[in-house]
Design goal:
This protein is an alpha/beta fold and 156 residues long. 29% of the residues lie in helices and 17% in strands.
């Protein structure tokens, strides 16, 4: 059973105003420890694999995998979404068309997903439409992580 997390980075793991803002390595801004821990918990609960849908994917798959390893982050990055210069939901839909997936969840702070993807989408930004997993501010909060696990494990 293949479970996939389509992972955005800015606004999910890397947020402005966090204690880690300004901390950098050769890959760029370091991520917020609490959000890294929440991703780790998701991986432990679901055994999902990661597909990077963030603009960070422009660095290429091998760079993303190297960063993940050097930063000792949880989960395994298996791919990046195609760059089509369209809405992110279109890029995710194209990746899904080319791969066999049992369940997936999109974690992003933007909402440019397709209508048919909304039941598999957890938005980490605080707004009126999708604020159900965000308490204050934004990022991969524990509440968001719980919603991701629920989506990925719904057919368990």
């Amino acid at each position: 059973m293949q479970k996939i997390i389509f992972l955005d980075i800015d606004g999910v793991l890397n947020v402005y105003g966090s204690p880690y803002c300004g901390t950098r390595d050769e890959f760029g801004d370091c991520f917020h420890k609490n959000f890294e821990d929440n991703l780790k918990w998701i991986i432990e609960q679901t055994e999902a694999k990661i597909v990077i849908s963030s603009t960070w994917r422009m660095s290429g798959l091998s760079v993303m995998q190297t960063m993940w390893e050097m930063r000792d982050l949880s989960g395994k990055i298996i791919d990046i979404t195609p760059v089509m210069n369209t809405a992110r939901g279109e890029e995710i839909a194209e990746w899904l068309r080319q791969n066999d997936v049992d369940s997936y969840c999109i974690i992003d702070d933007d909402s440019d997903m397709l209508p048919e993807q909304m039941n598999n989408f957890v938005r980490t930004a605080n707004n009126q439409d999708h604020s159900d997993c965000v308490d204050v501010g934004y990022g991969l909060t524990r509440k968001c992580a719980e919603k991701v696990v629920e989506i990925l494990n719904k057919n368990k």
